[in-house]
Amino acid sequence: MGGLEVPTWDPETAILIGTILFEAIVLYVGYGGLERLVGPRLMKLLVGGGSDAR
């Protein structure tokens, strides 16, 4: 029967996939924190001064 075999993992491949996943998580968290710190100031600078414009 084709397609029912359990694939065997090469340890190097598993380490590579784990490293890429870890890097993606670190970048996601890092950019999220950076956006929270810099985002409001940057938007205020780009869009303009106050939020009282009616």
From TrEMBL:
Highest taxon, organism lineage: Archaea
Keywords tagged on the record: Membrane, Transmembrane, Transmembrane helix
Lineage of the organism: Archaea, Methanobacteriati, Methanobacteriota, Stenosarchaea group, Halobacteria
Protein name from the UniProt record: Uncharacterized protein
Keyword field contains Transmembrane helix: yes
InterPro entries: DUF7512 (IPR055934)
Source organism of this protein record: Halorubrum trueperi
Transmembrane stretches, start-end: 14-34
